[in-house]
Every structure is written in C-alpha cells, then in structure tokens.
C-alpha cells in the first residue's frame, strides 16, 4: 500500500451544455486529474474542475510542494498526510492553490484506500443514508428570464422537486424580483426554489432585495455577500424570514469558523476542492454539532459518498457538467441520489475522454 508513483493529467474539454453565467460563455472545461499508484498496482484517482483557470499553477504546486513528500508513504495515512501537507505549506498556503492541490491528492488517496479494501467509501466511513434528494442547478442568469424558467421546467419534468436559479450581477433588484415571480408562477407552489446571488450584493442590498423575495416562498438565498463578510451574513439572516446559506467559497473548517461561532446559517455548502473528503467530513460533523445540515457545492458524483455516510445531509446539487466523462456516471433518479457500491468513490474517466482532451500529462 506504499505510494509508488503520482501522475498529473490536465484536460481541456468542450462543454456538453455550457453554463451561461453571463454574456460571456466559457468555451471549455478545465480539469486536473491525479492518479496515485501503489506498489501493488492499485490506482486511486482524484480530480478538480476549475471554473476560473489555474490548472497549470496547481500542477506546479503539486510538483514542487506536494508530491515529493508522498512517495513511499502508505496510502492509509490519510489524516497524517493531510496534516503534514497543511503544516508544511502553511507559510504559502492556508487557502487557495495549496489547499486545492492537497484536496485532489486527498480524493485520490481515499479512492485508493477504498479499492484496497474493496469497499465503497460510504461503507468504509459507515453507511447512513440510502438515498439523498437532489436539486436541479444551472438555471443561469445568462439564459434570461424565460430561459431560466425553461431550464427549471426541464428539471421538474425529470422528477426534481427543487431547482436553483441565479440572481444579481446582470440584474437590478426590479429585474430580480420579476424573474423570481415568473419562476414561482411557472413552477407552482410545490417546487422549492433556491436563489444564488454569487456574492453580488452588499448586506444592505441583500436585505432590501431579500424582503421583496419573501412573498415568493423561496427555500434559500445563497451567497448574498462576499465570503469574507461574516457580519453581513449575520445581519441578513437576522433581517430576513428566509434561510441564508453559504460556504462554497470558504477553505477548510478554519475559514468557516465564524459560521460555527455565530450560527446564523442553517445550511452549509462546503466544496470538496477546498479540503478534500477528509475536510468535508470534519465540516459535516462540526455542522451537525450546531444543528446545521450539509448541501455541498457541485461534484455530486464525489459528494454522494459523503452524503450517504453523514448524519446531517440535506440535498445534493446536480448539474450535468461531468456526466459525459465517466465510464459509469452517478446520476440522480427521479430527483434522488444513491451512492454506488463500487470500490473507492466509484467513478472512472473514460479512456477516450482522456486521450482526446489531455493537454499536459506527466
């Protein structure tokens, strides 16, 4: 179980359905993949999907600061490896590139351990939940009002009971309210509507707009302010009769500490690229201590393993960004996920996907 080799593969692939965050649509997906091979030939895989670039930078970080410390170590030393990398790179890290590099390694290590044990990770960690609800994400603001509604209706037709739409950035408060009103009218009262502002507002703006939203029975308002504005989150939560949620942009439980010290958010949305499986489980356990539930950011094919094994899952975010990449995609059925029973995290890139879209490999 000793680490023999670590390989990095970067991919640039076209979208199956490009996200329209705004007027400019990203042309390709940037994916960074890591394979950790043990001396017995087991290969664990981890990957990141980078929405804002940085693949070459993370690759350089892996080569210089991460991989030299791992060759020859036992893949089961996951906590020890996490702590060693965290402390070694503390001076230049704590957030950003070093944590993302550490996270892709953590995902691959857990995959290798699950394969050695011949167990899926949700069984290895202690299975808890047979099925977890999902919501249809990706009603992007760039589609415009009718386009967002059309995308939501597609999700409802596929069996989803919840959808998420964007607000802010392209719209003023009047347009945002019109968009939400049309969505509620189109979907009726039985479908939950989540709103994502992507840190578009100040706390004052979020309170003014949020009060206009309240009549439409929204399930949550996500990331209304910049991730550093913890006091703004608290002000908004106190002012509105609506769930205020966030966490996807925060790195590790340490960055989320103010949410635990002042528990105004009922739901946290950690991102596996900002701590790996190891950190996601710790965040979930901390959240459970304060009565918070987990609705993770993206990566449903990975996050279903965590959500099937923790005591406080709420809902999984589904969007079809990576479905075409996998040999056996992990997909929701009628709006619900079940974790696969394959060893490790249970997903594998198609060989032809790698060969066609690899841009750099070591």
Question: Could you explain the architecture of this structure?
Answer:
There is one protein chain. Helix 1 packs across helix 3 (97-117). The chain has helices at 55-66, 78-88, 97-117, 121-125, 144-157, 173-187, 203-213, 230-239, 252-255, 257-261, 276-289, 300-307, 351-357; strands spanning 3-14, 28-38, 43-50, 132-139, 162-166, 192-196, 220-222, 244-245, 267-268, 293-294, 316-318, 336-337, 358-361. The chain contains 13 helices and 13 strands. The protein has 2 domains: 3-118 and 350-361, 2-Layer Sandwich (Enolase-like, domain 1), CATH 3.30.390; 123-337, Alpha-Beta Barrel (TIM Barrel), CATH 3.20.20. Helix 7 (203-213) links the parallel strand 6 and strand 7 (220-222). It is of the alpha/beta class and 362 residues long. Strands 4, 5, 6, 7, 8, 11 and 12 form a 7-stranded mixed beta sheet that branches.
Write the element-wise H/E pattern from the N-terminal end onward.
EEEHHHHEHEHEHEHEHHEHEHEEHE
- CATH superfamily assignment of the largest domain? Enolase-like C-terminal domain
The geometry reads as globular
Q: What is the level 1 CATH name of the largest domain?
A: Alpha Beta
Q: What is the first-to-last residue Cα distance? A: 22 Å
Poorly predicted residue ranges:
none
Radius of gyration over C-alpha positions, nearest whole angstrom: 20 Å
Helix content: 25-40%
Tell me the number of strands. 13
> Which class do the helix and strand fractions yield?
alpha/beta
CATH architecture of the largest domain: Alpha-Beta Barrel
The main β sheet shows up as:
7 strands, mixed
* Count of discrete alpha- or pi-helical segments spanning 4 or more residues: 13
Q: Please state the average pLDDT score.
A: 97
Predict the CATH topology of the largest domain.
TIM Barrel
Indicate how many domains the architecture comprises: 2
Query: What is the strand content?
Result: 15-25%
